[in-house]
Amino acid sequence: MPEISVVVPAYRERENLPALIAALDEALRGHDWETIIVIDDAEDESEILVREHAQRNPRIRCMLRVGRRGLASACIEGMLSSSAPYLAVSDADLQHDEKSLPDLIAAIKRSDADVAVASRYATGASTGDLPRHRVFMSRLATGFSRLLGVTLSDPMSGYFVVSRKYLDSVVRKLYGRGFKILLDLVSASDGRVRVVEIPYRMRSRAHGESKMSFRVISEFLALVLYRMCGRLFPARFFLFLAVGLSGMAVHLAVLSAMFGLTAGDFLLSQATAITVAMTGNFFLNNIFTYGDRRLRGTRMWRGLLAFYAACGLGALINVSVADWLFLKAVDYRLAGMAGAAVAAIWNFLTTASVTWGDSGRKRQ
Ligand code: GDD
Ligand code: MN
Fold first, then answer.
1. What's the gap in Å between 173 CA and the centre of ligand 2?
2. To bridge 64 with a disulfide, which of 47, 142, 160, 314 should be the other Cys (CB 3.0-4.6 Å)?
3. pLDDT digits (tens, 9 = 90+) for 200-233
4. Which residue's CA is minimally distant from atom 18 of ligand 1?
5. Number of domains in the chain
């Protein structure tokens, strides 16, 4: 059994894979290792390439996921498919210098730590030629992670080694979405995690482009919220709520525009505003809240209709609850808010199952 499994998430990285495999082979000479390349299907034949290598080299393993996306979940599932006592995570685009792997392994063993992190911000390290706005974002995100009591110099690093023992102790508490698998791992432990850091110099991507996106940023913020709110609600709920709030702004904007255009036809203006806001909410939720299981093609249009139906019922419930409370002499503002809160939960729960098919499935 290998001592270390190097888990490499890869999406559209075909051109980088041969050089990556060669670099791992070179860097880990003398170690007992394997690599698990977790490919999310982009129909670019990455998996065929990895399997060809695997035929010749038993240290190479390929894990293909179809119809799935996500850096963090790819890493988690890759780690769980291994039985090695140490698990490394490293990117496929050659930004992480593979030569640091032996140092990371030595560091985690020597200090008996839970995690050894390759840091871009420790003394002697460097972000290489990472663009300035990316360094700024990474710094900002590091600031946010302080809210969770995480004090590493580079909690946003995607390059680290974790012990099997530690992984097993937190695996059921992981958030598992977005890019920030290291932050997820260390913040799952309630502060009882022992970390060592070693400096490294980040390189620039060899081929292809970064998959960082606005959606990834929103998933990072949802991770921070999720940890801060003590897991009272499923993580998606916060994204759903944020989309709902943005929908209110859209509603108001459309309402006032239409009210002006139609010279005061309130019913028409309100109906238009509701339709636009609901439609916008559907698409935003489809991209952000459920980006990992995004509906496309006919399933998307069917989903939109289901969304209208569920939220339409939600509006009825909203009015009924508010009206009932109002008749019980509750302050009208409070009654209105209570109606909206019940409807938000209703909308979330029903659309999670009828629109995005979450029923019976555990959070992922
Ligand atoms: N399987 C899978 N599925 N892999 C993915 C996905 C996905 O949905 N999205 C990205 N990856 C893979 C990429 O193919 C690459 O190997 C690695 O995850 C990192 O993605 P990049 O798109 O290259 O991200 P980045 O360079 O902007 O950011 C990375 O480096 C930073 C610094 O270490 C990430 O690892 C960040 O988390 C990290 O902060
Ligand atoms: Mn990269």
1. 26
2. 47
3. 999 999 899 999 888 888 889 888 888 887 656 7
4. 9
5. 2
